[in-house]
Amino acid sequence: MQLQVMMSSGFSVFRVGISFIIMCSFYMPTVGSLLELSPQKYFSTLQPGKASLAYFCQADSPRTSVFLEELNEAVRPLQDYGISVAKVNCVKEEISRYCGKEKDLMKAYLFKGNILLREFPTDTLFDVNAIVAHVLFALLFNEVKYITNLEDLQNIENALKGNANIIFSYVRAIGIPEHRAVMEAAFVYGTTYQFVLTTEIALLESIGSEDVEYAHLYFFHCKLVLDLTQQCRRTLMEQPLTTLNIHLFIKTMKAPLLTEVAEDPQQVSTVHLQLGLPLVFIVSQQATYEADRRTAEWVAWRLLGKAGVLLLLRDSLEVNIPQHANVVFKRAEKGVPVEFLVLHDVDLIISHVEHNTHIEEIQEDEDDDMEGPDIDVQDDEVAETVFRDRKRKLPLELTVELTEETFNATVMASDSIVLFYAGWQAVSMAFLQSYVDVAVKLKGTSTMLLTRINCADWSDVCTKQNVTEFPIVKMYKKGENPVSYAGMLGTKDLLKFIQLNRISYPVNITSIQEAEEYLSGELYKDLISYSSVSVLGLFSPTMTTAKEDFSEAGNYLKGYVITGIYSEEDVLLLSNKYAASLPALLLARHTEGKIESIPLANTRAEDIVQIVTDALLEMFPEITVENLPSYFRLQKPLLILFSDGSINPQYKKAILTLVKQKYLDSLTPCWLNLKKTPVGRQILRAYFDPLPPLPVLVLVNLHSGGQVFAFPSDQAIIEENLVLWLKKLEAGLENHITILPAQEWKPPLPAYDFLSMMDAATSQHSTRKIPKCMKETDVQENDKEQHEDKSAVRKEPIETLRIKHWNRSNWFKEAEKSFRHDKEL
Amino acid sequence: MGLSAAAPLWGPPGLLLAIALHPALSVPPRRDYCVLGAGPAGLQMAYFLQRAGRDYEVFERAPRPGSFFTRYPRHRKLISINKRYTGKANAEFNLRHDWNSLLSHDRRLLFRHYSRAYFPDARDMVHYLGDFADTLGLRVQYNTTIAHVTLDKDRRAWNGHYFILTDQKGQVHQCSVLLVATGLSVPNQVDFPGSENVEGYESVSIDPEDFIGQNVLILGRGNSAFETAENILGVTNFIHMLSRSRVRLSWATHYVGDLRAINNGLLDTYQLKSLDGLLESDLRDLAILKDSKGKLHVTLKFFLEEASTNQSADAITLPQDDNDNFAMRVPYDRVIRCLGWNFDFSIFNKSLRLNSGNAFGKKYPLIRASYESKGSRGLFILGTASHSVDYRKSAGGFIHGFRYTVRAVHRLLEHRHHSVAWPATELPITQLTSSIVRRVNEASGLYQMFGVLADVILLKENAMAFEYLEEFPVQMLAQLETLTGRKARHGLFVINMEYGRNFSGPDKDVFFDDRSVGHTEDAWQSNFLHPVIYYYRYLPTEQEVRFRPAHWPLPRPTAIHHIVEDFLTDWTAPIGHILPLRRFLENCLDTDLRSFYAESCFLFALTRQKLPPFCQQGYLRMQGLVSTESLRQHRVENRLLRDDAPMGRDLEDSSQQPGNQELLGAPLAPGPLAQSLDSNKEEL
């Protein structure tokens, strides 16, 4: 879209742009080919005031034909500048002084009318860029001053102060593509600006440039300078030197530095937006107008070429803008709402702009280098990693591969875990790796048989097992219905599930002593590393329904939490000891060595499940990739302490105190260990710019509004400060540092629009509308690859219709590519 | 019941009267479903009715199933391929290349267990069908010829009338639904003067000895004509073949009913000028005369009409009298008619309004795309006789096609009469791409009945889930809700298999250069059978289906996707097949269908207000996909995941389009972060 707008502006102003379009749409074979003439004929065609490049040659030799190819390429671009190109064949009958005596001495000559301007040895015209650059350079002798030292530059600068602006550029050598780009720009803007060119690195260094190995282009703002002792301001063009970029750069230089507006920022549009640059509105009030204007000008100079800067007069504004906002940021992308910002430092404005346009620049770079966001490039991380890992051999032999013939016999004969997967599905294959890891870890220790069945081969078996999606893990135990695994698809959780399933659910505890061992973790010593909590249901022998409900819950929780049941006659001994009234649950937290009791009165199975699941939640957990979903479910704002490594016990104590004092009931307090969960660093980057020192405490309102608040980093994380901060937050006195984006997840890239392609194919008319330049590039390719006319003709519409509809400005990009293609040849 | 018909022969007169009156007075035996014919289609329907526990009966005139195959094809070689090996284990996929088996849950009832021949013997088919009926215990009443079918209006009946079937013994059967699977049983005869001199395919000798040194003319150009020729090619002087239209080679038309390569030996000898030949003419203009020596001459009906009556055959004008190089000027020893078969309309009473189709569908009864007769509700045509729906297009006239259309009819009936909705699997939207990939890679019904049966995906509200319906008769798309009992309120996808638009035809060169398409962006120009997915925002109306654009199997969709044809018909390539499909689905549904590791979901959960469906339906339900170390390594190496080293450089832009730049390999450009971190520290 943006590019399209740029195109249309190119139409009106930019001559190179126009000629390039002409090239695309009206180019006819007769125009673009190299004329071959005899010397006499050639000189008769020269017109007064018109430039013409002629190559005089005697006979074709391999060496000259390479040059001729390049010359041929240059015919079209030169024609666009009104320069004709010819190959003059020196024949014996017509001796011309331009005809060299030997093959090696053949040269090209540039005439204006019939006056010889320059002669070029063919090795200076090494490619099409060199040809165009040299020819324009010779013709624009007055418009482009070539200098070699700083003194020359200062002289020109001084001469032009108060009169005109300068476009100063450094290129590594004459004849390279950057030189051509500068010359093409000079052809268009040479009368408006003074172009100055150098190839001296020293000169570039002396004006303070870094990265001197690249081409540079500066805009010297000399017209505004009235005091001769003052230096002209300079603006460096940051994009690579291409014709298009120079054009865009000059356009932004021409735009007013600062504009005052008093309308809704959402509606404001300037040339910057059309050029794909954002707008920065400095909000001003009458009282501070002068100061604001000075600030705005200062910002405008800093952002010249990067963004448009406007002064927004709040007092005469009809729409409301948030009270505290002092800067409004509007992106060039259509339909993106403006952002209201509170930025108290000019540098923050600058960094905000640079930060927010950075990505785009990179994407443009990609466009230039490659195809742009190619819809044929995998952007699914799972599919991509699985694909890249496809050649690694997994120790699959540790799992038993089942088939239709062996499936039933195997799962009947022994307790088995079955992984149902599809060989072609990336998620399945990613999980298969974890599954094999489990097999490696369990090797020789488990009675559970690890098996797998590829549903791409044994589709019927999977359907019979009611498996309609992949991957699915089921556990088959003798005498029990198969159970589907519902945990994380990863090694750790699956291993836990398998290990915890070594016992029955709930475990029937038969003596007080056994119960105590169970609660202390002694009974299932090897399992409590998988389940930090053991649940014991206490029932008197007569409570049959309550026992049934508990058993049901225990069965539901199997593989996730250890559950046991005790309902002997002496159950009261236990209930008295733990101060529980029957029926009750005892929860033994092994890590903390605590046992708590929860009464169960007419509690249904699903409620018991809920009680146990809730009990598994910690008061101040370390949040990890694995456990976030359990806390996320609570739908409360997260209070996260980001810590680089283990948490400082003092902070932990402070927060736990607040938890106990019920200050944090409406929040989920937690902490994140960046060493263990490195992705936390990316989260911080989304919240902060720049990153504050660690630890940092953040409140994230995930479920309503997405505001992120940061505990002031200059305050100590102690109870009093935290309480005060929380109160201010509650009272709405704290400003958020950022709002999490609320965008929907849209298709990452467009799809092929086959429907339009089919439509285009059915109406011949519309195929003709396709810009011709695309055909030509393809025809060129065809010429190289195949010579049969018939197939090329048949192929043509196919090739032309290969339009990727991911971008409406696509044809422009294609054209640009072919444009570049020309240059590169 | 069987006794009542037999008893009168020897019972006392009084009893005779009583018993004879009995069927007339009392209600005749009533069935919910009556199936006519125990051929492949009849048995297939019986199987589904039996599995569903329905009240049904099959009537078969012969003592065993598949009587057609006891006599036909005359030369005993079936041209339905019996591919026993495909290199694949997938049973559903293998049915794509098994043209003879009927559908059943019993693995033993696969045709490959009945014949080792690639082109099996017809006796094996008889054997197979017999086993199919016996093993599955299908209810077939053999030796029962239904001689007459009529309607009996009754408001209580399912369809407002009962079908009254009368068998050869006068026994009457009352049926709520009538499923006619009688095939095409009447040889097609063209009436022209001298047609009495012509032998029919159904009775001509199949012993090559009988043709030694003879000149033979065969009328017709189908597989039976060529099969007949093939048998005697080596012993005759020559064979000429005559038919109205040019030969249609099945490998050019992609229609299995056209001439198959296995039968086309005569084409070879014709083109190599080995005396055999092909001719085109309308048979109705011809006449065949027998001369005094018993030789047969071809002439025009016109000459015959010119000549006055009772002229001797030798005196009648022959075309070569005027036109001395007339192609068929040699006399023939034999003329054989191989003109195909017609449906037997004779047993159906007019009240059933079972009419023949028009134009080229004359030999078939007129039916809807749901296989129900246009004339009477509750009367369905199954099997070969139902081929008018896809004549010369798909495989509905053959076992490997109609076994699926029979299942479709059964599903329609289950919903109509037993409130069993069309079977469907409901899945979360994250499974959408996979469920399509799975089906296009294994489904045999879609593959065989391309353009006729198509899978339909009905989206649920907000497109967070969908229902997958298999093999729906796609021409009935507009009536989908009433026919299946499923709701299509939120848009739908239709998955169809198609050949390229201009690829097939009797005169097409199917071996031209560049016939196969490899680029995904050219997928819409694929020529060979490939999956095509149609997206409709709303269920098309009947009007839209009927007045769809020419050559379109379906009305114009909102968007369309072609999965590029594949030489191996294996559409599981991650980039070539699955990725473009996902992009299409994403753009139809306006969502992101990518899969993410738990770590990415974690990041999104804490940095965005919304999560992609994969994270919502997996990670947030504690079923996230955890990446193993080696996969994680690939993510880091390929910049799918930013390495989170403490001094990592920053590109994060939280307000950009979600997900893009975190995952797509945006090259890590030198960023200002390191600097700003430092300066920040100074400020502090």
From TrEMBL, chain A:
Gene (name only): TXNDC16
Stretches assigned to the Thioredoxin domain: 400-499
Pfam family, one: TXNDC16_N
Any single GO CC term annotated in Swiss-Prot or TrEMBL for this entry: endoplasmic reticulum lumen
Domain TXNDC16 N-terminal, residue spans: 34-136
Phylogenetic lineage: Eukaryota, Metazoa, Chordata, Craniata, Vertebrata
Keywords from the UniProt entry: Membrane, Transmembrane, Transmembrane helix
SUPFAM superfamilies named in the record: Thioredoxin-like
Keyword Disulfide bond recorded: no
Protein name, as recorded: Thioredoxin domain containing 16
InterPro entries xref list: Thioredoxin-like_sf (IPR036249), Thioredoxin_domain (IPR013766), TXNDC16 (IPR040090), TXNDC16_2nd (IPR057642), TXNDC16_3rd (IPR057645), TXNDC16_N (IPR057639)
Domain TXNDC16 second thioredoxin-like: start-end pairs: 137-256
Residues annotated as domain TXNDC16 third thioredoxin-like: 257-347
Superkingdom per UniProt: Eukaryota
From TrEMBL, chain B:
Swiss-Prot/TrEMBL keywords: Endoplasmic reticulum, FAD, Flavoprotein, Glycoprotein, Oxidoreductase, Signal
GO CC terms, sorted: endoplasmic reticulum lumen
Compositionally biased spans, kind Low complexity: 663-674
Cofactors required: FAD
Transmembrane helix is among the record's keywords: no
GO MF terms, alphabetically ordered: flavin adenine dinucleotide binding; monooxygenase activity
Region ranges (Disordered): 638-684
A UniProt-annotated Pfam family: Pyr_redox_3
InterPro entries hit by this protein: Auxin_biosynth/cation_transpt, FAD/NAD-bd_sf
Gene Ontology BP term (one): ERAD pathway
Biased composition (Basic and acidic residues): 638-652
Signal peptide as annotated in the record: 1-26
PANTHER family: FAD-DEPENDENT OXIDOREDUCTASE DOMAIN-CONTAINING PROTEIN 2, FLAVIN-BINDING MONOOXYGENASE-LIKE PROTEIN (AFU_ORTHOLOGUE AFUA_4G09220)
Subunit details: Interacts with SEL1L. May interact with OS9 and DNAJC10. Interacts with TXNDC16.
Functional note: Probable flavoprotein which may function in endoplasmic reticulum associated degradation (ERAD). May bind non-native proteins in the endoplasmic reticulum and target them to the ubiquitination machinery for subsequent degradation.
Family the entry assigns: Belongs to the FOXRED2 family.
Annotated protein name in UniProt: FAD-dependent oxidoreductase domain-containing protein 2
